[in-house]
Specification:
It comes from Segetibacter aerophilus. The protein has about 290 residues and is of the alpha+beta class. The protein contains eleven helices and seven strands. It has two domains: about 1-165, Jelly Rolls; about 180-290, Arc Repressor Mutant, subunit A (Orthogonal Bundle). It has helices at about 1-20, 95, 125-140, 150-165, 180-190, 210-215, 220-230, 235-250, 255-265, 270-280, 285-290, and strands at about 20-25, 35, 40-55, 60-70, 75-80, 85-90, 120. α6 (about 210-215) crosses α7 and α9 crosses α10. It is globular, with a radius of gyration of 20 Å.
Length: about 290
């Protein structure tokens, strides 16, 4: 059953990449927990129900109707708490969104950027309006209209502009101190190292010292700031992100393990194998075989 699900997900992702977008209605599946260790697409969700969203180093517990904006460079997970959970989701690549070259990079949007506002509470009137937009996108996705991609881009823009007019969720903690600003920059810099696209271009920044030097601060100051804001050390953030990328490369590419090790900054495959087993409890080869 697990292999069937993996194949179905793989097929879904392949189809999505061919078009650059997908729109669908969320089915009711209370109690589900979705982990997104690798996301190649921006995501906008319109949902009604009770859920807990873990986004970067923050958590949001929401009940009612919300709009959520997911950035492919920021790891997050979504826990559905209520048994009745409905809504819509649109997934799209930045290439699809910027096909006309008139749109600003989504990385600069306050809705998608690190330190932005990914969760917005909406009222019933706003929910009905946005429901209509999502239903229109679903209809166009099924149509044979020649310019449906352009039309869907317009619908996505409309959702974004409607969201920009809303007030941020009251549960969103907007830090303004220096430690948090530095931590946000560190997390953004960390995410910019991924995904690893080629073994010929291995990770440039691999240690806390590397990041501190790049940010022009003392490593002890960086470590204190990151620990204070996130509760985790700088090294832990780096290690967890490398492990996440290692899993993604093992599961979603045909690279040999030696190439993966080199791409992630390990001089010897043995070092990578020991690192991976220490952090995950299994070795890279075993994990890859489990996904076949």
């Amino acid at each position: 059953m697990q292999n069937k699900n993996v194949r179905s997900l793989s097929t879904f992702n392949n189809e999505l990449k061919l078009k650059g977008f997908n729109v669908f209605q969320i089915e009711s599946d209370g109690g589900a927990i979705r982990l997104y260790s690798r996301k190649d697409f921006y995501k906008i969700c319109l949902t009604t129900g009770k859920s807990k969203i873990h986004y970067s180093d923050k958590s949001f517990e929401q009940e009612g109707s919300i709009l959520f904006f997911g950035n492919p460079n920021i790891p997050y997970s979504w826990e559905t708490i209520s048994t009745t959970y409905v809504g819509y989701t649109v997934l799209f690549s930045e290439d699809f969104f910027k096909a006309s070259d008139r749109s600003e990079s989504l990385q600069n949007s306050p809705l998608f950027k690190i330190g932005g506002t990914p969760v917005l509470k909406i009222d019933e009137q706003q929910r009905e309006f946005l429901n209509t937009i999502f239903r229109k996108m679903i209809e166009e996705q099924k149509s044979d209209y020649t310019y449906k991609d352009d039309l869907i881009r317009n619908y996505i823009n409309l959702i974004i502009h409607e969201a920009l007019k809303l007030q941020p969720s009251e549960h969103y903690d907007q830090h303004k101190n220096a430690a948090t600003r530095l931590t946000s920059v560190f997390l953004e810099l960390l995410e910019r190292q991924f995904p690893v696209e080629s073994a010929d271009h291995p990770l440039r920044l691999k240690t806390a010292q590397d990041y501190a030097k790049h940010l022009n601060v003392h490593v002890n100051y960086l470590n204190r700031a990151v620990k204070e804001v996130t509760g985790k050390s700088t090294t832990t953030h780096i290690t967890e992100r490398i492990v996440s990328e290692a899993k993604a490369l093992l599961q979603h590419t045909a690279w040999n393990i030696a190439d993966i090790a080199y791409a992630l900054g390990f001089e010897y495959t043995t070092y990578f194998n020991n690192f991976f087993k220490r952090l995950t409890g299994t070795n890279p080869k075993t994990l890859r075989l489990q996904e076949v």
